[in-house]
Design brief:
single chain; mainly alpha; 2 helices
Length: 44
């Protein structure tokens, strides 16, 4: 099996799952505390 193709697949999968988790966390924060969302982002 091609090593570079496997590495590219792993990188793509990690980026995809990472982006999905970040989007879910942001949506969850906005849903729970609408007023404090900007402050949480500023602190991080």
């Amino acid at each position: 099996m091609n090593t570079s193709a496997l590495i590219m697949f792993l990188v793509g999968a990690i980026m995809l799952w990472g982006g999905l988790i970040v989007c879910l966390r942001i949506a969850f924060k906005k849903h729970n505390n609408v007023n404090n969302g900007v402050d949480d982002i500023a602190q991080e």
